[in-house]
Amino acid sequence: MAENTIALASFILTLMVFSYLLGDVPLIGNLYRIAVYIFVGMTAAFTLIVSYEGLILPYLQDIQDQSTSWTALGWRADIYIFFTALLFVLLLLLKPVKSLTWLTNSVFAVVIVVGASVGLVGALTGTLFPLLYATAALPEDFMTNFSALVDTLLIFVGTMTGLYYFHYQARAGPDGSEGQSRVGRGFRHIGKVFLVTALGAIYASTLLTSLTILTERIGFLFQFGA
Amino acid sequence: MSNRTGRGQGFGIALSAFVAFAVGAVTALSLLLGDNPALFGDQPGSAQLAGLLALPADVLLRLVTIVVALSIVIGIANLLTTHVGRLSRGKFYSAVLLASFGFTVYWYVTRRGDTSLLEAVQVPIESALAALLCLSLLHGGSRVLGKRADIWGLLFVAVAVIVLLASTPIAELAPVQAWRDWLMRVPVGAGARAMLIGIALGTVVTGVRALLGQDRSVRG
Q: pTM for the complete prediction?
């Protein structure tokens, strides 16, 4: 496609998306929806192409090639894995058949649970243990560098009280009312300071990113118009 | 009759829960212990043992990857079927979606390796939508502050303003940049860690629920 055609298409589509700002004006209001539907159709097509070319086709080629194997079990096991996966997909398609619900649920359970196991192991080894270790570790020069020690303690207090903020245990008072203890409420307030600060910084960072893209788009519109 | 149906459902749930627990436990243990010979010390054959323990996860992950890839194709087929149905009821936007899908596939099949369609259509729409996010964020932020003008709202805005001011290239604002660096390193780091650890704990709990067959998706 020629450079000019790409630029013209980009110009028109950018204006169509920005027409959202004009609200429900007759005819113009439809332009945004048309752009979004074009986007969805194209994304679906690219997803189909990528999953076929990136996953299904290589798998189909691999099971025909005796010199390659996915696992230590050898080439023949690859064929069994591939056809078991096909069988699973066929069983998932039979979900509307009520008498086979027990079978489709079992297949569904395998898919969900393998994903959950990967998530579980990933959360433990990739997030939870490294973050807990980093939070509890003292700086190497903490005897001489006082500000580093204070920062580390602040991070520790912020992380722990931030976690405590999500803890909703209440206990009954002498008059029968339910609520948190004063210490608990204090911890929650300290945790909220750190959480609100983090959310404010995340909000500002997202705003900066989208502002950069907005200025680039407006710059492009002016450049093309000129 | 209903008693028999109830017994059948009970059997189905028990079977799903059993399959979930067995497959989940094998996968999790295989991922944790497999391909890690250091766990077994200097014993002879520790590398083979570690490889053997990694095998179940290897097979199950490969199986699930193929199932997910084929499910994506089925999902897209479902999307197209739905829009063909809507088109027959005279919905104009479904025609746009189907035409866009068909044209993209045709373009890809006839001009392999040509990414100009991606540059001309996909990238501008994505960029323009991301640019609209800026205005939506500003609108949402002002609404939150208008409705909740308390100490927490003020703290939120103060932090956002410091981060925004510090990103401007004005020499007079150098002290604000030092504040921003400290803010990002200490309080924001602590708050983000608390959120990430909370998410990790939630993932662990959800994973264990699925492994025990207690999740709704597993029970059916």
A: 0.78
